From TrEMBL:
UniProt keyword annotation of Iron present: no
Protein name as it appears in the record: valine--tRNA ligase
GO CC annotation terms, alphabetical: cytosol
A single GO molecular function term of this UniProt record: aminoacyl-tRNA deacylase activity
GO biological process: valyl-tRNA aminoacylation
Residue intervals of the Aminoacyl-tRNA synthetase class Ia domain: 89-158, 177-311
Methionyl/Valyl/Leucyl/Isoleucyl-tRNA synthetase anticodon-binding domain residues: 356-505
InterPro entries from the UniProt entry: aa-tRNA-synth_Ia (IPR002300), Anticodon_Ia_Val (IPR033705), M/V/L/I-tRNA-synth_anticd-bd (IPR013155), Rossmann-like_a/b/a_fold (IPR014729), tRNAsynth_Ia_anticodon-bd (IPR009080), Val/Leu/Ile-tRNA-synth_edit (IPR009008), Valyl-tRNA_ligase (IPR002303)
Native species: Gongylonema pulchrum
Length: 634
């Protein structure tokens, strides 16, 4: 077979193995194409460009009657330069190499002994595979735009020369202060966080080179995040037009500017048109300004340890912006509460009200979850806990229970609420600053009562929340209450009931004293809890609804209400007719579907009765069983 070691990676490996020598750049006799892409040692075709020579060689073969025709090769993949469109072909060149076997073995031993840990654990194999490679490390690559290597081959083997000129040393690339004359102290670094796709090019090289030069590893823990892709799972590529510059999310950018950048790139033809079409379709109005914290929000919503992170960065950054707006409104509401307090806002006094004890307990529980998740290198779960507390617990629940006191100017109640809000907000913003520092610091400066208090000082000094205690039983009961409230709200949407209609509701079974939560339920969903659970004989006057995740059912009163254990006439609200009409429609729909299924059963029974083939008989019996299973829920 023909072999061209100077122009093919596989052929070069074969030649090195069987010929037993490396092919030098000066050994022109073994080459057929020079660095300019022109033929050498080719007789009449010397000096011709390789593409031009191919045409003339085919013409010469045809003239001599030696041409055997072309043969398609659909599996061949040509390497085309994305910038210039040129065909890329390898050529043998001199390079600078580093023998990495000994260095890699040292790093591998550290991984096996646990001196260096890689998270997630599955990625450690990826790093080990890189370190197990025996090929020398090419550090030059001799590119026209590459870095010049400050090393020279001496003509004399018994002396060494130190070079001092800027051109000889290229200080920008290798001028580490004082090295190698001054010993480098251990760097104050313990963790490296980077992408798994550069574990070999970056992480492995840092471990091996640093230990070889200094005697210690630059870090002991490596966190590898996955590859960030677009919302369709495609790798971000300029030619696809799906690359998002983080600065565009932070500062915003117009669609015209994005297209103008595309024109400035080296793309031509089809790739450029595809990228332009993609940009116009995805960002017709450009990208709105979201800020750095909204960008962090978008990234923190995903598990960084996943191999692939599919993210619609613009959409999720917009969600982050809405969260920032929610925090702004939260602090504005707290300011309204403080404005209605007589005198200076003081620290939260002890309160026996359920919602006050609950929000303090939830803050302490959230803090413990945050610390545990951050300690286990899962920041997305830590942020999710903080986000849930601020949005769901503080804004959607606790604040709603305080609005009536604010509207009524209840000074006594507002004094307690003001202290709790101040303490909870301060501690929450301190923890949130880990993830969203700018908005946290700005809002902290707005709400703090002592000018000397600094958010970052508190972040470093406040490691616990000893003043707060966790009440697990209360949190469990409150979770049940919130599920009941969600069910009632769903019923209002389902039956299109007004928020102003006060529903009379009973719960069964009554696992705990719901009456203690009467004011919370009333504030959040405008419901009156009946003191007695309806008996079976009276259930016709109630509509039962299940509570998601619990065996509890709630019964919405239609015709009677229970008060002090006695049946009393109930003034019918507008919601009674709406509920009955909706239920009647559902009943008619269910009955209609049931009749259709029964007809299908009769059809299959008749076909099975007259069927002689066993396979068809089994088929009809299966269909009958399937239809019966569909009827059961009806």
């Amino acid at each position: 077979m023909k072999i061209t070691p100077s122009h093919d990676h596989v052929d070069f490996a074969i030649a090195r193995k069987y010929i037993g020598q490396l092919l030098s750049d000066e050994d022109v006799s073994r080459r057929c194409i020079n660095d300019s892409g022109c033929l050498v040692n080719a007789s009449d075709f010397n000096g011709l460009d390789r593409f031009e020579a191919r045409i003339k060689i085919i013409s010469r073969l045809c003239d001599n009657g030696k041409y055997g025709g072309t043969m398609p090769f659909p599996e061949q993949q040509l390497k085309i330069c994305g910038r210039t469109g040129d065909l890329i072909e390898p050529v043998l060149k001199k390079q600078w190499f580093v023998d990495c076997v000994a260095m890699n073995d040292t790093a591998l031993a550290a991984l096996e002994e646990g001196t260096i840990t890689v998270l997630p654990r599955s990625m450690q194999i990826h790093l080990e595979n890189w370190l197990n490679r025996k090929e020398p490390w090419c550090i030059s690559r001799q590119l026209d735009w590459g870095q010049r290597i400050p090393a020279f081959r001496p003509h004399s083997s018994d002396r060494y020369v130190r070079l001092f000129s800027r051109g000889e040393s290229v200080n920008l690339g290798f001028g580490f202060p004082g090295w190698p004359d001054r010993r480098i102290n251990r760097v104050p670094l313990s963790v490296l966080e980077t992408g798994f796709d550069i574990a070999g090019f970056w992480v492995a090289r840092m471990l091996t080179v640093c230990h070889s030069l200094t005697g210690f590893f630059p870090f002991t823990k490596v966190l590898l995040h996955g590859l960030v892709r677009d919302d369709e799972g495609k790798k971000m590529s300029k030619s696809l037009g799906n690359v998002i510059d983080p600065l565009d999310i932070i500062d915003g950018v117009s669609s015209q500017t994005m297209l103008q950048r595309l024109d400035e790139n080296a793309f031509q033809g089809v790739e450029k048109r595809k990228a332009a079409i993609s940009l116009k379709a995805r960002f017709p109005e450009g990208i709105r300004r979201c800020g750095p914290d909204a960008l962090r929000f978008a990234l923190l919503r995903h598990d960084a340890s996943a191999t692939d992170i599919n993210i619609d960065i613009v959409q999720e950054a917009s969600e982050g912006l809405r969260f920032c707006n929610k925090l702004w409104n939260l602090c504005n509401y707290a300011g309204d509460v403080w404005d209605n307090v007589e005198g200076e806002v003081v620290e939260a006094a002890s309160s026996d009200r359920i919602e006050d004890r609950w929000i303090k307990s939830r803050l302490k529980s959230t803090f413990l979850v945050l610390m545990e998740k951050m300690g286990s290198d899962r920041p997305h779960l830590a942020f999710a806990a903080m986000y849930k507390f601020l949005w769901n617990d503080l804004c959607d629940v606790y604040l709603e229970t305080t609005k009536k006191a604010l509207w009524a100017k209840d000074r006594e109640r507002l004094n307690v609420v003001a202290g709790i809000l101040h303490e909870v907000l301060e501690k929450s913003l301190v923890r949130l600053s880990i993830f969203m520092p700018f908005v946290s610091e700005y809002l902290f400066d707005r709400i703090k009562r002592k000018k000397e208090r600094n958010l970052y000082d508190l972040c470093l000094t406040e490691k616990t929340m000893d003043a707060f205690t966790i009440d697990n039983e209360l949190e469990k009961e409150m979770h049940s209450v919130l599920e009941i409230i969600k069910t009632v709200r769903s019923l209002r949407v389902l039956f299109q009931l007004s928020r102003r209609d006060t529903l009379q509701v009973a719960c069964q079974p009554d696992a705990f004293d719901l009456k203690r939560f009467q004011h919370v339920i009333q504030d959040l969903c405008n419901v009156t809890l009946l003191s007695t659970v309806p008996k079976i004989s009276s259930c016709g006057r109630f509509v039962p609804f299940p509570v998601h995740g619990y065996s509890t059912k709630i019964f919405v009163a239609l015709e009677v209400a229970f008060a002090d254990g006695c049946l009393m006439p109930c003034v019918r609200g507008d919601y009674e007719a709406q509920i009955k009409e909706k239920l009647n429609n559902q009943l008619q729909s269910a009955q209609s579907r049931k009749d259709q299924f029964l007809c299908r059963i009769k059809k299959h029974e008749m076909l099975a009765k007259n069927c002689e083939r066993k396979d068809l008989l089994d088929k009809h019996e299966r269909r009958i069983t399937q239809v019966f299973q569909k009827i059961l829920p009806l």
